[in-house]
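Hi everyone, sorry if this is the wrong subforum. Our group has a chain we'd like a structural model of before ordering constructs, and none of us has done structure prediction before. Sequence below.
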Amino acid sequence: MLPMKKATTFGIAAIFMFMIAGQAWAGSNGYFVTYDSKIEKGELELMLMNDFTAPSEFRREEEGFGNYLSHMVELEYAPWRQFATEFMVEWFEDFETGAKKFTGFRWENRYRIFQEQVPLNPMVYMEYEDLDPATRYKMEVSGWVNPPYAEGGGEPDRERILETRLVLSQDFGSLNFSLNWINETDLANAETAFGYALGGMWMIHDSQEENEHHSHESHEGSKGAMGVGLELYGALGDTQSFGFTPSRQEHYLGPILMYHFSQHWMFHTQLAIGLSKTSDNLVRLNFGYEF
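Answer:
Right subforum, don't worry. Here is the predicted structure as tokens:
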């Protein structure tokens, strides 16, 4: 259970974020950790991603974290129907300790194996990460927070990671289900940390159908995509010790609200609830612009 001060701060932040959500208009791709298999040729998108995090007691005591904001700026382009690439930079600021740092960049590439729709629409994902070990933005969760084995050696100055995923995704009418298997391989020692992400998204309103129905009218100000969803994501150990041990790993459950407030501007938010004593609690808020 969260201490009173931490719970109050987290609650105020959550209410503030969802008040913003109620006043905004709609978002398009609502998942925060999970990827589906959709790629739209020619899409160019800029996204500002923001998390308010109330750290677990373990992180407060062992790593000295206070409540903090972490951010990522992402630029994505899809030159082909089956391929998309993204470049991301990230940083954080800790309210309680005063720590702030630019922590590095990521370069991500996704390739959908089949051009047409097939069962589960498999997609492969590869990302190069060049990050400070102090990085705090949760693009994924893997490995251990508190390993069940003795760690050797000091912490490196940089982490250079190759992340790969198998992405499976299926639509059932307006409902999407997606599953990601996550591998994060340290290029210095070849050790791999494992994680998972599961997502479900129900499209309450589809902007594409709306625009087709009103094709004789101007698209300016038309209602956009709107949906609600749920994500479950967490860690599964590493090549030294694989397994599901929540007391030593991060696991999260997060409801999602997403929508577009115009043809170009998007918004989505999530309240990510930590399911284990080593997990944090987050309010996640993303804004994007499609060119």
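For your construct planning: Helices lie at 4-23, 57-63, 207-213. The longest strand covers residues 159-172.
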